[in-house]
Design brief:
Shape: globular
Strand content: 35-45%
Distance between the termini: 8 Å
Helix content: under 10%
Structural class: mainly beta
Largest sheet: 4 strands, antiparallel
Number of strands: 28
Strand order of the largest sheet: 3-2-1-28
InterPro entries: WD40/YVTN_repeat-like_dom_sf
Number of helices: 1
Order of helices and strands: EEEEEEEEEEEEEEEEEEEEEEEEEEEHE
Radius of gyration: 19 Å
Length: about 350
């Protein structure tokens, strides 16, 4: 693999990286996002629809930005909004096959009002409608508070939503995405619709086999692991220190992998055993993809410039490939530390 597309926030830009030509070029900013240091960096996240070359950018505003990266050097941008004018805090795709027609290939977005909004494909089948449709799903347990993050089962019939009350108590809630019928094997999701989680949660991830949920938080060295089959939940310690941006860089059926400022570590989802992997040195996470993490090692930075050397690591840190240097510009530091950028392998 020699070509990559990097989707970065603050400001929103699309980068094209070609290792064979040793080049890395970025578009002009697609918007001018700002981050208030007095508030949590929430959420500045991306969701990828790989088969359609679409990327969705979420920044907690009134719209989700749909970006067509089929030509990454000249991406096209579309705004997706609800018909209620609420802010959209997170998004997720089901991504499975054989989904019921009422949820097939929809983009799900968690609203600031405690509702889950959906955006179906438009008539072209290549992009999504710019207004949510049909009526949204209300997460009653949210009591009209924001949906912090979402995970969707592959068949599109159940959503797991992160919510938090005013007193700081947080929970992962199961939402049944009706109408019926559902896959009979999925009925256990409704057996216990809510689990308590660690305080101030930031992300929820679902394993590919849909057995485990992993809930993580900013500024915490713990996570909540939920077994959706037995309905048991446990708080577990991570192998690394306090996570600046805790979303796993990869989740498989048995393990969640993390990279905290260059420190690769993992946790076994069944036992809760946490292990350190590889630590190449203090680093910023430039972007994370399905198989790799792009890092820049801070000790290789030339002071007085915005140019950083980059290296591509496997998600466990054990394989490394040096990449072209990149000029991140004056806004580089926040998104290197937040670790929310998306890396696509093309």
């Amino acid at each position: 693999m020699s070509k990559y597309v990097l989707c970065a926030s603050l400001p929103l830009r699309i980068w094209t990286i070609d290792t064979s030509a040793n080049t890395a070029t970025g578009t002009a900013p697609l918007n001018q996002e700002q981050m208030d240091p007095a508030h949590r960096p929430w959420p500045f996240t991306f969701v990828a629809d790989g088969p359609r070359d679409l990327v969705y950018h979420i920044n907690g505003g009134a719209s989700v930005v749909e970006i067509d990266v089929s030509n990454p050097k000249a991406p096209t941008v579309t705004q997706l909004k609800t018909n209620k004018g609420v802010n959209l805090m997170c998004a997720a795709l089901a991504g499975g096959f054989g989904q019921p027609s009422h949820v097939d290939q929809r983009l799900y977005a968690g609203g600031s009002d405690g509702f889950i909004y959906t955006f179906p494909l438009d008539s072209s089948g290549k992009t999504r409608k710019t207004t949510s449709d049909p009526a949204p799903y209300e997460v009653l347990e949210a009591h009209n508070r924001p949906i912090i993050d979402l995970a969707i089962t592959s068949d599109g019939t159940h959503a797991f939503a992160l919510i938090q009350s005013n007193d700081g108590k947080a929970a992962a809630v199961t939402k049944d995405l009706k109408p019926m019928p559902h896959n009979p094997q999925s009925h256990y999701y409704a057996d216990r619709p809510q689990w308590d989680t660690i305080p101030n949660p930031a992300s929820i991830s679902l394993t590919p086999d849909e057995r485990y949920l992993i809930v993580t938080a900013y500024g915490s060295n713990m996570c909540t692991i939920i077994d959706t089959k037995t309905t048991e939940s446990h708080q577990r310690y991570l192998a690394s220190g306090v996570a600046t941006a805790p979303r796993p860089v990869r989740v498989d059926d048995s393990t969640a992998y993390f990279c905290t400022l260059g420190d690769f570590h993992k946790i076994d989802l069944a036992s809760g055993e946490a292990k350190s992997e590889v630590n190449p040195g203090l680093a910023g996470v430039v972007g994370a993809g399905d198989k790799h993490v792009l890092l820049t090692l801070f000790d290789q930075h030339k002071k007085g410039t915005n140019v950083y050397s980059c290296s591509l690591f496997s998600y466990d840190g054990k394989e490394r490939v040096d990449m072209p240097a990149m000029d991140f510009g004056p806004a580089y530091l926040p998104w290197l530390l937040l670790e929310t950028n998306l890396l696509l392998e093309v």
